[in-house]
Every structure is written in structure tokens, then in C-alpha cells.
Amino acid sequence: MFSDLPLLSLIIWLPILGGVAVFALGEARVAWGHRLALLVSVLTALLGVGLYAAFDNSTADMQFVERAPWIEAFSAWYYLGIDGIALPLILLTVLVTPLVVIAAAQSIQQRASQYLAAFLIMEGIMIGVFAARDALLFYVFWEAMLIPMFLIIGIWGGPNRVYATIKFFLFTFFGSVLMLVALIYLYRQAGTFDLYTLQQLPLDAGEQMWIFLAFFAAFAVKIPMWPVHTWLPDAHVEAPTGGSVILAAIMLKLGGYGFVRLSLPITPDAAMALDWLMVGLSLIAIVYIGFVALAQSDMKKLIAYSSIAHMGFATLGFFIPFMIVAGTGESTGARMAVEGGMVQMISHGFVSAALFFCVGVLYDRMHSRQIGDYGGVANTMPVFAAFMVLFAMANAGLPGTSGFVGEFMVILASFRANIWVALLAGTTLVLGAAYTLWLVKRVLYGEVANERVAGLQDLSRREFVILAALAVAVLGIGLWPAPLVEMMSESVSALLDHVLQGKL
Amino acid sequence: MTFTTPDFLPALPEMFLLGAACVVLLADLFIPGRNRSVTWLLSLVALAGTAVCVLALEVGEHGVMTFSNTFVLDQLAILMKLAVLGASATVLIYSRHYLAARDLHRGEFYTLTLFSTLGMLVIISAPHLLTLYLGLELMSLCLYALVALNRDSAVGAEAAMKYFVLGAIASGLLLYGMSIVYGVTGSLQLDQIAAFMVAQEERHLGLILALTFIVAGLAFKLGAVPFHMWLPDVYHGAPTPVTLLIGSAPKIAGFALVFRLLVEGMESLYVDWRDIFIVMSVLSLIAGSVVAIAQTNIKRMLAYSTIGHVGFLIMGFIAGSSEGYAAALFYALVYVLMALGAFGMILLLSRKDFEADNLDDFRGLNQRSPWFALVMLLIMFSMAGVPPTIGFHAKLAVLSAVVNAGFLWLAVVGVIAAIVSAFYYLRVVKLMYFDEPQDHAPLSGGVDMKALLSANGIAVLALGLMPGALLGACIAVIP
Predict the structure, then answer these.
(1) CB of A341 within 8 A of CB of A417?
(2) Strand blocks (E) in A220-298
(3) What ipTM, to 2 d.p.?
């Protein structure tokens, strides 16, 4: 009954149309805009919960499939479907967006209805990326996402927002168009944009290498990997709180999703041949960017760099399996690595969202992101401090929080590949703890630094709800990760079977 | 000696438009200046009537020839004629308010527009060098005169002069090339020329020489580098409604010109004209994307952007397949849709004694009118080729065609040019959305214009979501 509905279309188009409606309400009726946006985002979240309830864990097949002709000239289909890899990311998206909408009521004064509309439209587009089974549809959603994000950073961002948003747009556009050329090439070989067919398409080593590199340009920029990460700190620092949250929580995950959905299955042999590069870049992200984060004096920048380091874990998890199999000849460790990478993405989605919300809470009161302007905040905002310490611990990978699960799985799996890789990856436990705890120490503890800090008000009810919801998610995944891992395990096994078999 | 009456029916739209244009010309003499809108309405009726004539005609799969094989009406011609008529009508609707506000609201604008539209229709239906040239000159002469519409404007006069001199040189080159073709093949009819070339065992050197002249002439008309010099000056100097006209419908005629001459007439020399086109395409892409960045005048910026788009359009011809030609046709139609919207926005923002032709005039538009800022945003992203707008599918179609023809590197050059050009389109969006408005005057323009411009913006998005029908139509009409 419920699962007979075109659920994926609903969950994509409901927020998009809701966003259009909010835009149409205009600034004059912004209070109604807030209510409508909240209603739409909560309904979307409920649809997401419905998807989860109706989802069958025991198969790697695509579920909730919808298929209709779209552009016959390109043999492109409006083809949707999700598996255990896409579903967690969709859930992440639908759970985080309502929080952004709630937060907007307080922190956004100017052109609020356009702000809400942009976020709702972006929510639909991002779900579309996760649900698309057709490469052209995937690409259209992938690129369409740039438009609302460009506006969000540019309109509601900080002083240097124009530079940041244009840099963001051009960096990601550059990566994407190279992916487009690769997709066109694949289409020409296969005669279709259907992702499943492309995954089965035989390709020789040279072709795979070029296609892998083109995909790499798109996904490495998005996730982002060193050395193409430089847009991220700028974008994060300038973006409004909601923009940073969506950027860190979901948009970065699209890069990881792209690696899992396109790079690995379409070009498995190139991925195997270049795994040293991917693992190397991931380790650089983990170690070097960890040190960079340590040196930041701007809270948002610090969290942005920490995001890059954490996403390094995701990419490490996705590309270490080749080394594990080469070293041990069996694939259980490989499965753990990929699952660890996925869990890391979901966990980081919640943790980074929470940290950016925390910075937003402070910024709304003090209009400063500089760590030096704070000190002793715990004295005036005890409730806030409790939340922030929890999220900081999760960011540092404390057992019991979601941050621990993914990192632990990836490190454990890495030991089977190469002890040095595992050791280098393990430095994050030290570095991550160092930069986050030092941040907490400088901002929250110590003497009350100045009069403005002394005058701070603790969390409003709205802020409390947001942070509490995120705290539940962070602790939930940390204490009981089994449902999340079970959701994806069949799909990950099927993926690894295909990838490790290769195409040559 | 027997005389058979030719079949007039296929030329019915042209005959109707010719008659109607003469009626408009005469009627306008008796219409006082304050009632100029009657002329406007009559012109629209003329275009609509012509469109009805086009729609009423039935042609088979292969089309019909008439007037001793100097006139053809096929599916391709019908599609392009409808597009040209639609674009011209849109030009008239967008322009009325602007012209009325600055003493340019004269009957000449309407009659010249109608006659140049007639010229385009003739080009589209030309299977014969003479018909082709006739249509081309009819179109061009009207456009030269239109550029000089504002007699008192020095910039306008300069632009008209440049346009005329360079246009005349281009026509001369084309005509010279045609005459060599005639000398070698002994025929003016394109299908006979094609048959002659196929029968040749070796490439005839004279034909290669002729081809060079013809391609140079075509490149002038299209505005491809290195024959693009006139384009920025003319776009900039002409009154904006005329820029709107030059930037829209003639691009479809330009496609027809290239298709009829090079594909239908000289496809045996494909390899030769393809190589010239490759060079022109790459240069146009580079010049169009890089030089536009330096512009502060939006009309000039859009002129350079046109050059870049021409670089993409001719990629379809480079592919040299039905698919490629269909992609080029699709690109031309999509480009016209976007150009109409972009220049229409300039007209909308202009008012009495104020030309909104600087980029700065778009500052803060989102605060003055969120809706029209959104329309312009969609058009800019479409020109940049960002999905889900139609501009993306146009680029995808041509890129896909060149990749299929084995020119992967050209596709890479194309997408890199697209990134560079994205920068200046983004700058317009930046001005509209991120900056504060400098002037708070309400937008000008009548309800008709605003409604059509809104529809234009929505079309850019809606066709982007559902491009199948238009693309399918383009593929269906290319033989």
C-alpha cells in the first residue's frame, strides 16, 4: 500500500515544489514561509522514515524502483532506485534539513523566504543524486545542486562571500564537466546512461584509467581531497550557518557517494591500479590536514579542515580493500573497510552539522568566529557547553559516539593491508583529539575572557531542540551502530564482489 | 514552347508575408504616430498569419520542390520557419515599449523586421545558390538599415557602417565562391552540385578554392573567429531591440545557410570543411570565453558569448553526421531562446532616457524584482550550460556528437571553455543577487512583455527538465 506509492519521486519533488511555494509566498508573508518550510521538511523526513521502514535489508537489489522514459534521443531514463548505500545518505539528508529550517527562523533576517526556498530545493536535488540510477539524471541533479548553494553562500555569507562562492562554483564545475565528458564517452560505448549497464560494460585498462581520472576530478573536488580542497575552508568560513551545515553534512558526502557508485564499479581495475594514489592522498588528508587544523584560529576554518581529515577516512575505507585483498587474499576485511567508510560519512554528517550549529550559536551572539574572542563560555552557557563537549568528543572519535565506529572499522581493516597505513591513519586519534579538545579548552573553559562573553545567554528553546536532536543521532549511532551497518551490508558485499572481480 | 504554372503552394508563407509586409508599409503611412501600436499589432498579425500558412502546409517525408527546383519545403524548413517566426514575433513584443520611450517607434522598424524575416524564410527554403543569395541579401540589407535606426546616434551609425562594409565583403566572398562552384560544376542547384562532386574521382582544386571562400563568407555571417570582429561593435552600437533581432532569428537562418550549402551541397568535401571548422570552433571557444570576461557592457559581453556559442554550434557540423547536424540545429534553437531572454531583460530594465546596457545596471535586481532576477538567473545558468536548464542539453548534444565522431579532445576543449565562460555568467548572477541595488526605479515594460519574458524564463527551465520533445523534433527533421 504505502510502498506502492512513487516514494522516491515524492521525496525528491515534495521539497522542491515546497521550496517553489515558499519562494512564491515572498518576503511579505515570511512567517507563513517559515511554517510551510518546516511542514514540508518534516513531511519529507517522515517520508524518509517511511522509506527506512519499508526497506528490505536482506537484498542488494535496487528498491522502490521507478522508471520512465525521459530523453529518448539520449536513451536517458527517469530511473530511480535505492540500495543500502544510498538509503543512509538519504536519511541523513532528510534529518538534517529540518534542523536547518528551524535554525533559520532565528539567524536569518534578510530575504528569509528565499533562504528557506533554496534549502528545500537543494534538499530535493541532493536526494535526487542519491536516488538516480541513470547517469545523465545523476549528472543533472549533481550539477543543479550548485545553483542554490552558490546563492546561499553568496547572498547570506560573510564579508568575503563573493570570492568564496565563485571559487566554490568554479572548482566543483571544473571537476564535474570532466566527469560529463567521461559519461558521454561511456554512453557512446554502451548506448545507454543506465548505471547498471555502465557498471557491467567491459572497458580496457587504458579507457578505465582515463575515466577513473575524470571521475576523480569530480569527486575529489567535492569530497574534497588534498590538494583540491582549498575551496572548502573559504566556502565554510563565508557561508551562513545553514550553508555550512548542509555543505559539511551532505554535500561532501556526495563526493564519497560518487566514488562508491561510479568510480569503483565502473572502473574497478583502474581503481586497483591507482589505489596507492588514493590511499596516499587519503593519508595526507588525515595527517597533514590534521596538523593544518591544529593551527587555525578561526572556529569554522578549524572544523572545515577537520572535515577534510575525516573525509580522508572515508576515501581510505573505499580504496584500501584492494590492498587488503592483495595482502590477505580474503575479503571480509575489505567489507569492513568500505562499511567503515560509509559509517564515517554518516557519522561525520551529524557531527560536523552539530559543530557548525554550535559555532552558529556563538556567532549569532558575538558575531565573531575567532577563537581568541572567546574563553570561559561554559560559565555563562553551561547547557551549550555540555552539548559542544559531546560533539567535540564525537569529532575526536571517543568510543560511545558515532565518530568512533567508522574510524575504528577503517583502522582495524587497514591493519590487514599494511601496518604503516594503519599507523598513519591512527594518528588521527591523537591529532583529532588535539585540535578539537584544544578548541573546546580555548572557547569553553578558563576564565571568562571579556565582558561580551560574560553577557552571553544560554541556548534558546529552538537551539536546544536542534542540538538535542543531533546529540541523539550521534549517541544512537555510537552506542548501537548495528541497524546502520545491517542496512548497508548486503549492498556493500555485492559492490565488493563486483569490484574485486574486475573487468579485465 | 510550353509553359507550366509552377506550384505556388509551398511558397505560400513567403508570399503571404511579402503581401502583409507591403500592407503594413502602406498602412503605416496613414497611421498617426501616437497610434503606432496599430502597426505593431498588424506586424504581429502578419507573422502569426505566416505561421498559420506554414502549419497548414503538408509536405511528405522528402519535401516538395517548386519553381524549377529553386524552392524547397521540407520538414526541416517547416521547423526552422516556425522558430524564425516565433523569434521575430518575440522581438516585436519585447521591443515596443523600449522604442516608444525613445522616439524610435517608427513604421520602418516593423517593415524592415518583416522583410528581414522574409529573407530568413527564403534562405531556409533555398535548394539553389541564387535563392540562397537572394534570401541572404534581403535579410542582411534590412538588418544593416535597422542598425542605423537611431539616426542621431554616432555609435549606431558607426556600427551600421561596419556591419555593412564587413557584411558586404562577406557576401562578396560567398558570391565569389559560389561563382567558382558554378564554373566548375555547371550548376547552381545544390543537389546537382552534390551529385557532380560525388561523381568526381579526385577532389577538384577549384572546388577547394571555392569552398575556402564560401566557408569564410559563412563564418562572417555566423560570427566565428577569425571573422568575428564586427559582432561586438554591432551588438553594442545597435539599438537594443535591433541587437535582440540580430542576436536571435538570424542564427537559425545561419544554421540553414551552412546546412544547405555545406551539407546538402558539398558533403563530399566534408573532410576539408571539417578541418576549417575545427580551427574556427577552437578559436571561437577561446575568444568567446576569455574576451567576454573583460567586458563591462552587457551587450558586448553577450556578443562575445555569442561567439563562444557559435564555437559550440559548429561542433555539430564537425561531427558530420545526422546526429551532429540535429545537435547543431538544437543548439541554434536553444541559443535563440536564451538570447531572446537575455536581451529582453536589458530591454525590461531600460526606460526613458536610461539604457540598462552596463553590467552594473543589473546590480541588486533580486531586491527590485525577485521574479525577473530569477528569470535572468535561469538564462545565465542556461548559457553557462548548467543543468537543469536547456543550455546544458544543447551542449550535451553537440559534445556527444563530436565524441562519437572521434574528437574527444575537442569535447574537452569545449568543456574547459564552458568553465571559463561560467565565470562571466556567474558575475551577472553575482551582481543581481549579492550586491545592493543602485537604482530603485520600478521595471518598465507592458504586461505583454512581462508575461512573455516570464514564459521565456520558464521555458528555459521547463525545456531543460523535459528536453525530449524539442530534441526529438530536431532529430526527426534532419534527413
Answers:
(1) no
(2) none
(3) 0.90
Instruction: Tell me how close the Cα of B429 comes to any Cα of chain A, in angstroms.
Output: 9
The answer as to whether B406 is a domain residue is: yes
Residue B4: inside a domain? no
Q: How many residues does chain A have?
A: 504
What's the structural domain count of chain B?
A: 1
Chain B neighbors of A147, CB-CB under 8 A: 377, 381, 386
Q: What is the mean pLDDT of each run of 10 residues along chain A (504 residues)?
A: 77 92 86 89 91 86 87 88 90 91 82 89 93 92 91 86 89 90 90 88 88 91 87 87 88 91 90 88 90 88 90 89 80 85 90 90 86 84 89 88 87 85 85 88 83 82 89 89 87 86 79
Residues contacting B54, CB < 8 A, separation 6+:
B13, B78, B81, B82, B85
What's at B128, amino acid-wise?
A: H
Nearest to A338 by CA among A418, A404, A257: A257
Could you give the CA distance from residue A391 to residue A370 in angstroms, rounded to a whole number? 19
Distance CA A180, CA B388 (A): 14
* Residue in B381, B412, B433, B460 to test binding to A, most A beta-carbons within 10 Å: B433
Q: Give the mutation candidate from B285, B395, B430 for the A interface (greatest A CB count, under 10 A).
A: B430
CA A487, CA B1: separation in Å to the nearest integer? 88
Question: Which residue from B minimizes the CA distance to A70?
Answer: B468
Furthest-apart CA pair in chain A: how many Å? 68
Say what angle helices B107-124 and B75-101 make with each other, to 10 degrees: 170
- In which domain, by residue range, is B291 found? 9-477
* Cell numbers describing residue B214: 564560401
At A203 the three-state DSSP class reads coil
Residue B1 within a domain? no
Helix (H) or strand (E) holding A81: strand A76-82
Instruction: Judge whether B40 lies within some domain.
Output: yes
State the DSSP string of B8-72. Answer: -GGGHHHHHHHHHHHHHHHHHHTS-GGGHHHHHHHHHHHHHHHHHHHHH----SS-EEETTTTEE
